[in-house]
């Protein structure tokens, strides 16, 4: 069985901004306290975060993909810097690092260029440069940084995606404590998916979180896909996961895709654990499992499922 992970990032500290790192540390502290009843000392937390964000060439991720049977992973460039202290690497340097990983492993990774639309025209040019020259195959957005999905500043990005035949993956739902929510959701995605009906929109974390609203969106817009990452927060509520998965496959069986959000949840398990979790639920028929792990991803990716060209050496 072929498996595509639709949601992952390079685990490398210099790619992240201080406010996002602090949010991740807050989440780690909460997870460890919840799972183990342990209060972390600050120095220990720093060491855990550094160890889990030390995979700049994705060698650890590739090893976990191999162990899990994941054939291909979508790597998402997340731009958290606008209006805050920038990360150690600026946005152009992030593109270069993701390109280096793609160039070294063109058969294992697909890269989506990320941006904050408030950066201005140079960021739009950089995004198209990624598609045209670097072999990137989609757009990653994080509205919790402080903008809306239907912001007119994003229309040129959506038009480029339409022209290149590539999808958009959007963060939806709760974010880290240092971020904000999308205030106009779901109206913002319903309007955007209507206006740009030829573009596929993958809603990160939407398959199990904010469930009724996200399911309604997918039912109304055939170009909207619900992605599974974030289920890790609910892994102990197995019956709830099973019930929601059954409903999704009853209502929108062609619009749900598998994702893990590596490395955000790697303190709770491995990529193999996440694949095995879904296989062991016992809810899906073989054809539905194939849809979850592969066929729906190919539909969502569209032209992005195969590179337009091999990235140049």
How does this model look, in words?
With 313 residues, the chain is α/β, with parallel strands linked by helices. The chain has one domain: TIM Barrel. The chain is 43% helix and 12% strand. It has 11 helices and 10 strands. The protein has an 8-stranded parallel beta sheet with strand order 1-4-5-6-7-8-9-10. A two-stranded antiparallel sheet has the order 2-3. Helix 7 (187-195) links the parallel strand 7 and strand 8. Helix 3 (59-68) runs parallel beside helix 10 (271-280) and helix 5 runs parallel beside helix 6 (155-164). The longest helix is centred in the N-terminal third of the chain and has 19 residues, at 18-36. It is globular. The relative contact order is 0.15. The model has no long low-confidence stretch (mean pLDDT 88).
In short:
By secondary structure, this protein is an alpha/beta fold.
Which homologous superfamily in CATH is the superfamily? Metal-dependent hydrolases
Shape: globular
Helix fraction bin? 40-55%
What is the chains' assembly state? single chain
Per CATH, the class reads Alpha Beta
Strand numbers in spatial order across the main sheet: 1-4-5-6-7-8-9-10
Query: Could you say how many structural domains there are in total?
Result: 1
Radius of gyration: 18 Å
Unreliable spans are: none
